[in-house]
Specification:
The chain is mainly α and about 525 residues long. The strands form two sheets. The chain has a two-stranded antiparallel sheet. A two-stranded antiparallel ribbon has the order 3-4. β3 and β4 form a beta hairpin. The protein is globular and about 75 Å long.
Length: about 525
């Protein structure tokens, strides 16, 4: 089955090993359970609204932001108890240092300013600026308010941040405001008005506690009695979850696109969920012709490409085509590529470009020359595939970038690398060298092998199927460690994304070994 069109294809894997029939039968049942889980967890409008799992970042920021607010004391005490047992992320030196520093900020000791490890740039530099602003706001020892002011204004540039995404501009203005307050300087003219234009209807800033918490810190220093400050504080408190934590983001459009791409073609999914999910995605198209990962944010190119892949081959794609084509042309770089965000400080990411190429092709958007983008993607291939910008498993590049090129030597090289890194339990690791197999990485590897390899071996696919069967929960889904970047280089994990990527690999491997998910009968309990 093609992962982006839902078309069932005949099995083409090499001979399956003896005893594989039992694994295949179990995998078919696992796919049925995965579909049942998906159907049971979607909302009435056909979308999936699932919170990411908690991590140190948002929760330490919220705790700092609410310090000294009397009515927020119970909320802050709850999150501090959670932070006491939280484990720092370990995939990146900057993130590990940041998590340890963030946790220490709220443990009663006199805070010191954040000192990043050497050699950081791009998104990492933006995260360092955020942490330095946080240190300045809480009065950390060694905090350099003058240096923060200089760096914030340099990031804003002569246009005062109009060239970056709105929530990022709001945060840069917050960094500036925090520095000004520490230096006894007045709030720059126009800042409050810009924040008012950015604040969401619910009082948050783009629905992200990470942004809302920083804006609350700035507002309490610059305009403590302003109605916007009270609305911001109320929104931050309202976003706390029953377990005492704050979460990164709900990305209902992105997650729904992934789920449709994963399970379309299964009869129960098609009957119970697909029509509503496709309608939800179609109606989520913005006036500019693109799609955002969530209603709280602006259109972005990754979500647009992913949604086009989900809508491809349907009447909804026909309806969206003209506006989507205008969007794709308007946001293409002079080199024929696409960045993730409509932001002057963003660079093209291979997986984003691949989603736009594949989505434009699958949805038949007219008048867009994809040759430069395909050539660029091919030039980035290494001996083992591609690095991706938004998911950490190495298999993500092979699964999402390779198909945008069609038949290409880089796909075969990526498949060989995947076959060489399969673990003894049949799975693949989330991070190269990590001593655990990951359902997400395994699903991605199986999808990559069945779409990019000239002749995927039946034995490798059967072993991968076996791992996904064994790691599936009794409820029909999978658990995993953080796999998606957001904000880079921090990682996050959302159950819907893990489910979709694991289930898609399950489906693709079953199709490749000759067992397409047809005629499974009615869903249990239906």
């Amino acid at each position: 089955m093609n992962p982006d069109t839902g078309v069932l294809v005949s099995g083409r894997a090499g001979a399956a090993p003896p005893g594989s029939s039992d694994v295949i039968v179990a995998a078919v049942r696992a796919l049925d359970r995965a579909v049942e889980f998906a159907v049971d967890t979607r909302a009435r409008d056909g979308a999936w609204y699932v919170l990411s799992e908690p991590r140190v970042l948002e929760n330490a920021v919220a705790a700092c932001s609410l310090a000294g607010v009397e009515r927020a004391r119970p909320a802050r005490e709850r999150v501090l108890r959670w932070l006491d047992g939280a484990v720092p992320q370990g995939h990146d030196a900057l993130v590990s240092a940041a998590d340890r520093w963030l946790a220490a900020l709220n443990r009663g000791r006199a805070p010191v300013t954040f000192e990043p490890p050497p050699a950081y740039e791009g998104p990492q530099a933006r995260r360092v600026l955020y942490l330095q602003a946080l240190g300045c706001a809480v009065g950390a020892e060694g905090a350099d308010a003058r240096g923060l002011l200089t760096r914030a204004r340099a990031a804003l540039g002569p246009d005062r941040g109009r060239g970056v995404k709105p929530w990022q501009r709001a945060m840069l203005l917050a960094f500036e405001a925090i520095a000004c307050a520490a230096l006894g300087m007045p709030l720059p003219a126009g800042t409050l008005e810009t924040w008012q234009g950015t604040q969401s209807a619910d009082g948050s800033f783009s629905g992200m506690p990470l942004v809302t918490g920083m804006l609350h810190l700035a507002l309490t220093r610059a305009a403590p009695d302003h109605p916007m400050t009270r609305r911001c504080r109320d929104a931050l408190l309202a976003a706390q979850q029953p377990d005492g934590t704050w979460r990164f983001l709900v990305s209902e459009v992105w997650d729904t696109g992934l789920m449709v791409r994963a399970l379309r073609g299964h009869p129960c999914f098609d009957a119970d969920t697909l029509p509503a999910s496709l309608e939800f995605l179609a109606l989520a198209q913005r006036e500019d012709g693109g799609w955002a990962c969530t209603a709280a944010l602006e259109s972005d190119n990754d979500s647009t490409g992913n949604t086009l892949l989900a809508l491809a081959g349907t009447a909804w794609a026909d309806q969206a085509r003209t506006a989507a084509a205008r969007y794709a042309l308007r946001h293409r770089t002079p080199e024929g590529l696409w960045t993730t965000w409509h932001s002057g400080d963003d660079d093209p990411a291979p997986d984003v470009v691949a989603h736009m190429v594949a989505g434009i092709d699958a949805a038949a958007l007219p008048g867009i020359d994809l040759a430069p983008a395909r050539s660029w993607l091919a030039s980035l291939a290494t001996g083992g595939g591609w690095s991706s910008g938004w998911y950490i498993p190495p298999a993500y590049g092979a699964a999402e970038i390779g198909p945008a090129l069609g038949p290409h030597p880089a796909n075969r090289a990526a498949a060989r690398e995947l076959l060489a890194t399969q673990r003894a339990d049949g799975g693949w690791p989330r991070i190269a060298g990590e001593p655990h197999s990951s359902p997400t990485a395994t699903g991605l590897a199986l999808s990559a092998l069945t779409t990019g390899a000239a002749d995927p071996t039946g034995a490798a696919l059967i072993r991968g199927l076996g791992f996904l069967v064994d790691s599936q929960t009794s409820g029909g889904s999978w658990h995993d460690r953080p796999v998606m970047y957001g904000p880079r280089p921090f990682l996050t994990v959302t159950a819907t994304q893990v489910h979709a990527l694991a289930a898609r690999g399950l489906r693709d491997a079953l199709g490749a070994v000759g067992t397409a998910p047809l005629d499974h009968g009615p869903r249990s309990g239906a």
